[in-house]
Amino acid sequence: RWTTVTGVQTCALPIWYSPERYEHVKNVIELAMHLAEKHSADSEKAYTAALLHDIAKDMKVKDMVAMLESADIFIDEEYHTSNILHGPCAAVIAYEDYDIDDEEILYAIYYHTFGRAAMSKMEKIIFIADAAEKGRTYQNVGRIRKLMYKDLDAAVELSLSGTITHVISKGEVLFPATASALEYIREQRIK
To answer: What is the C-alpha to C-alpha distance for residues 24 and 28, in angstroms, rounded to an integer?
Structure first.
């Protein structure tokens, strides 16, 4: 089946996405394409990364771990959560099942939930599109939306900071890449 998202034809991928998840993905695609246009990035790459970013979201954690290990990606056991593992798994699926070999797309998918130091523009676009799509309602999402068009780095910084605060307040384990991403972006903004 086919669906039109902001005027672009795309396969709905009904095997992988529940109706609720697909609604989120459509929102991320729409925002990613707007952000790519605004920030002079490749909108086709943004579209592809946004379409596939959550393709592993509903997998069982044990299956994610097995998939990553078969791809020689090893993440410490204390970080074996769906929120952390689904991005790397989605990148593996994009590469292995959909023949996506563009590193810019694969990295944007891989790091879309936790970020990393020295994120590319595309990584930031997918990170923010996922965090600030119109279905999101958490505290500070309005501020992120106001910033994302004029200062992508400020929007990423605010989102990373909020993620860290949220994870710590819930007593969960913070993935080190998130703290590194925030530290890096703050250092770059000071320069």
So the answer is: 6
Cα–Cα distance measured from residue 104 to residue 106, given in angstroms and rounded to the nearest whole number: 6
Burial 157-185 (b: 16+ CB within 10 A, else e): bbbbebbbeebeeeeeeebebbbbbbebb
| Predicted confidence (pLDDT) per residue in 29-45, tens digit | 999 999 999 999 999 99
- The pLDDT tens digits for 108-126 are 999 999 999 999 999 999 9
For residue 31, give the nearest of 115, 155, 154 by alpha carbon.
Answer: 155
- DSSP assignment of the chain equals -EEEETTEEEE--TTT--HHHHHHHHHHHHHHHHHHHHTT--HHHHHHHHHHTTTTTTS-HHHHHHHHHHTT----GGG-SHHHHHHHHHHHHHHHHH----HHHHHHHHTTTT--TT--HHHHHHHHHHHHSTT--STTHHHHHHHHTT-HHHHHHHHHHHHHHHHHHTTPPPPHHHHHHHHHHHHHHH-
